[in-house]
Amino acid sequence: MSIRITSKASAAAWERFVQEAKPPFSVSSDWAGFQVAAGNAGIPTFGLQDDEVQLASWVFRLRMRFGLSQLRATFSPWFHPDVFKNEALFEELFRSWLQSVRSHAASTDAFVRVEPGVEQGTQNALMYTRVLERLGAKPASRNPSPQHTHIVDCSLSDEELMKDMHPKTRYNIRLSLKKGVVVKCDTSPEALERFLLLHHETTSRQGFSGHHDAYYRTMRDTLAPSGMLELFVAEHEGQALAGALVAFTPTRATYLHGASTSEKRKLMAPHALHIDIIRAARERGCSEYDFWGVAPPDAGPEHPWAGVSRFKRGFGGRDVSYLPAYDVPLRPLLTQLVHLLGK
User: Fold this and answer.
1) Which of 32, 41, 31 is nearest to 104 (CA)?
2) Does 160 lie in the same domain as 129?
3) What is the rounded distance in angstroms from the CA atom of residue 318 to the CA atom of residue 320?
């Protein structure tokens, strides 16, 4: 069975891959369109075996200091689950993918940073790690995407969801709804501007810098028309209290960005917000709601994400820890330099 690396796959083959491999939003053509619109050049790659998609990837070039750059593969390359049954096939596909990436690399590209998106402690993770190490990959200095996340089974009924939650979370959801908090799904430009006001307040209150407003506007303009991106806002008497930008694939909803006001905190608007998102994901046929980032399971109360992680875990579900990111050298000397600089 011959392996072929290409930049395109048939619509029917891609649809079968989506249903069987359940790739994340970061591998979709819609997300790639957003990245390109945001200024990141993209490289689409598909690994075909007998015209069936066995691997899918979008790789983007990100600029670094001193005129250098890296290629970024977020939860990519993504493999069909059958590939993990055969390590030789897995490695052949990975090497073919890497050769294709090298052929598109610029002279300034030091490495390709691979985020496998494979759960730690599994046989798939062990295989992935062995192949990466045989290719000379080294653990990255940091993980661009959350290595630890929390996932709720949104296919459950409301009764089952509530039963799986922490009692305090159940109480806060009921309190919020009783006090008149309502959640609206509105991805219009006007709704996004209201979200951005909440976002400005959140970043100022919590002391971190988010993306520029133009980033979110580009995200809305490129992803909302296809329905991949939805904006949910929790309101009370017309006042926006909390909001969330959520990415949808056929099988998973992912909480990408959130914001809230410090006003009317006793109304527990974020609790109403997320139970509504979970229900909306279930109505769209998703089986999972990914809260997209929590503190490591063994982290103490001093961790900067301790509070938000406690909130997310209150909705039930399970923690998932992925393999860390790896840097696969394209130009070994440049890779060593970047690692010395700690990028």
Assistant:
1) 41
2) no
3) 6
